[in-house]
Amino acid sequence: MEQSHGKSLCLSAVFYWPLLASVSVFGNTLKARLSAQRQTPPLATETVKLKTDIIQRELSEHKVHSAETFATKSGLAESLTRVHDALDRLSDRIDTLIQQGQ
């Protein structure tokens, strides 16, 4: 009986040893990748800062352009009111001309 227990232990070791080794290699590879990601080179950091500064400047310029170019709600409402008033006056004149013609 002891011999069969020894054989199963030996078979278990033969089966599990490669599995444990591959898990260990995977763990070491994962650790190496994570530590490489944590250490960003200074050049990459400076590049990101420069690009961020450029994007912020361009966004500010676009905001100024938009404020100067596009209509605001209040400005559009005022213009529509003026057009509506002009159409009312024109309609009144046409009505007056029609009444004088009759």
Low-confidence stretches: none
The average pLDDT is: 78
- Structure annotation, total helices: 3
C-alpha Rg (nearest Å): 40 Å
Tell me the series of helices and strands, N- to C-terminal: HHH
Question: What's the quick description here?
Answer:
The protein is 92% helix and 0% strand. It is mainly alpha-helical and 102 residues long.
Overview of the structural elements:
The chain has three helices and no strands. The chain is mainly α. It has a domain of 31 residues.
Notable characteristics:
102 residues, mainly alpha, 3 helices, 0% strand
Topology:
Blueprint (H helix, E strand, L loop, with lengths): L1 H37 L3 H28 L3 H29 L1
